[in-house]
Structure formats: C-alpha cells, structure tokens
Automatic annotation (TrEMBL):
It is found in: Cytoplasm, Cytoskeleton, Flagellum axoneme; Cytoplasm, Cytoskeleton, Flagellum basal body. It comes from Spizaetus tyrannus (black hawk-eagle). This is Dynein regulatory complex subunit 2. The keyword Coiled coil applies. Belongs to the DRC2 family. The gene is Ccdc65_0.
Length: 158
C-alpha cells in the first residue's frame, strides 16, 4: 500500500504539473496567436495605408492626365474656332473691300458728273453774261441814238 500512496500523491502532482504545462502551453499559444494577430493587423494596416497612398497618387495621376486630355481637346476646339473665325473675317473683309471699291467708283462717277454739271453751268452763265452784255450794249446804243435824236430835235426847236 505504501507504494500506492506515493504514486497517488505523485499522480496529482504530475496531473497538476501536466495541467500547468498545458495551461502554460495554452497561454503561450494564445500569446503567439495574439502576436500573430497583432502582426497581421499591423501588416494589413500598413498594406491599407500603402494602398491608400497609392490610390491617392494614382487618382492624382489620373486627374492630371484627364486635365491634359481635356486641355488638348479644348486646344483643338479653339484652333478650329479660330480657323472658322478667321475665314469668316476674311470673307467679311472681302465683302467690305468690294463695297468700298464700289462706293469709291460711285464717288468718282458722282464727282465726274458734278464736274460736268459745273462746267455746263459755268458755260451757261458765260453765255448768259455775253447775252446780257450784248443786250446792254444794244440798249446803250439805242439810248445813245435816242439821246442824239432828242438833242437834235431840241436844238432844232431852239
């Protein structure tokens, strides 16, 4: 019996030691799992931060490229608008130049007509002056003749 007692006493000790060993192993495994979880969490947070930075950078690059594309499109549109406006301007200028040339021709013709009318008027005035001068000369001669006749008649009566 004495053999059984120490083995019974040793058995609870061994069971306690085994339990303690199992508990310490469980704690070690739990701490290892906790550390692995923390490391995984840190790794995932770092990866998420890198992805966010990468996403922000890529978004910036996309916006920059999109703006470049939009600028190129706007540049092409503006060049087309300028080309259309310059062609329209050239047509309007041609039209206005032709109107100016037409008006200049009309003005030259009007000046020529005015000069012709002025020459004709001056010619008619000169003829009228000559006619009036002839009439005046005739009247003076008639007056002089009548005056002589009256003088002679007056002297004859005297």
């Amino acid at each position: 019996m004495s053999d059984k007692r120490p083995s019974r006493a040793a058995a609870p000790m061994a069971a306690e030691d085994g339990l303690l060993l199992l508990q310490s192993q469980a704690l070690a495994e739990e701490e290892e799992a906790k550390m692995k979880g923390e490391m995984l969490t840190r790794f995932l947070k770092d990866k998420l931060a890198k992805e966010e930075r990468s996403s922000t950078l890529n978004l910036h690059k996309l916006r920059t490229q999109w703006r470049t594309v939009l600028r190129e499109v706007k540049d092409k549109e503006l060049h087309q608008d300028i080309e259309i406006l310059s062609q329209t301007f050239a047509r309007v200028m041609d039209c206005k130049d032709s109107v100016i040339e037409s008006l200049a021709t009309d003005l030259e013709e009007a000046e020529e007509q005015h000069a012709q009318a002025l020459r004709s008027h001056l010619y008619n005035i000169d003829r009228l002056l000559q006619l009036q001068h002839c009439r005046l000369t005739c009247l003076e001669e008639g007056y002089g003749a009548q005056l002589e006749a009256l003088k002679m008649e007056l002297e004859a009566e005297r």
